Amino acid sequence: MKKLFTLAVCLFTVSTLCAQTQVIAHRGFHATKNSRNNTISSLQHAQDLGVYGSECDINETKDGELIVIHGPKHGPYKNVQEENFAVLRATKLDNGERVPTFDEYLIQAKKNTKTKLIIEIKSHPTKEQEARVVKNILAAVKQHKLVKNVEYIAFSKYICDQLVKNAPRGTKIAYLNGDLTPEQCKKERYTGIDYNLNTLKAHPEWINKCHELGLTVNVWTVNDKKDMQWFIDMGVDYITTDKPDVLKRMLKDK
Fold first, then answer.
1. What is residue 33's predicted lDDT score, i.e. its pLDDT?
2. Three-state SS sequence of 218-251
3. Would you say the C-alpha torsion 183, 163, 171, 233 has a positive or negative sign?
4. Residue 89 confidence (pLDDT) above 60
């Protein structure tokens, strides 16, 4: 009986360690043939790969349409937030796809909810607009019945604060900008940090501190295998990468 108990503890420990770091595809899994970041195909590829999450960027156009595109530039247009949707839609992306609407992206997300949608809400010129964008994104997610299948990230502290105020209880909200300590993020009621790899390398102690405070740690954008291994060894919860297939293989081998 004692041997069985010891074996069970060892198996639990190993499984826990293996489950510590999850893969998030940066703007979808676009490093595939005929794909491009923030497209329906990049989301579908991330779902097919079977990673934890697929990140996407949301902007609001001049006429109020929520679109999935990093921005601010698109083709000849300097800022997607200053153009009408029809104009942007008419310009094809490099792979022939069109800029997807947020609704279209959510429809694809529903086809395989094992891969969570990590929604980055881009900063907008005014607080009033950012509040409206947050409200409309939350409403769309609710309408598509994906509340439990999405997480949110933002550089704008105001957007994060609006999410804390208006999102359903239990929603994951991580701050991107890198200028707040774990203690400050906890005080603001964010559920985690999502910081650039150089920021976390400069403050490796923040990883343990976040875990002590019950916060998650995501790091972006990690494409070098040595960096991937360093953050795996440091025990971060998520790694956001343009090479989700490479990272997934590394985690599997480990």
1. 87
2. EEECCCCHHHHHHHHHHCCCEEEECCHHHHHHHH
3. negative
4. yes
Q: Rounded to a whole number, what is the distance in angstroms from the first to the last CA of the chain? A: 29
- CA dist 200 and 179 (Å) reads 11
Q: Are strands 66-68 and 53-60 parallel, antiparallel or unpaired?
A: antiparallel
Structure tokens at 106: 């959510």
Give the residue among 161, 157, 100, 163 at the shortest CA–CA distance from 136: 163
pLDDT in tens, 153-182: 999 999 999 999 999 999 999 999 999 999
How would you classify the pairing of strands 173-175 and 216-220?
A: unpaired
Residue (of 197, 185, 206) closest to 224 by Cα position: 197
Q: Is pTM beyond 0.85 here? A: yes
Sign of CA dihedral 96, 99, 103, 109: positive
| Helix, strand, coil percent values for the chain (each to nearest 5) | 45, 20, 35
User: Which amino acid is located at 153 in the chain?
Assistant: I
Residues 6+ apart with CB under 8 A from 172: 151, 152, 191, 192, 216
* Largest CA-CA distance found in the chain, in angstroms, rounded: 70
CB 230 within 8 A of CB 200: no
Q: Which uninterrupted H or E stretch holds 135?
A: helix 127-143
Q: Which amino acid is at 243?
A: K
Is residue 157 within 8 A of residue 186, CB to CB? The reply is no
Give the whole-angstrom CA distance, residue 5 versus residue 223. Answer: 40
Report pLDDT digits (tens) over 206-225: 999 999 999 999 999 999 99
CB atoms within 10 A of CB 32: 16
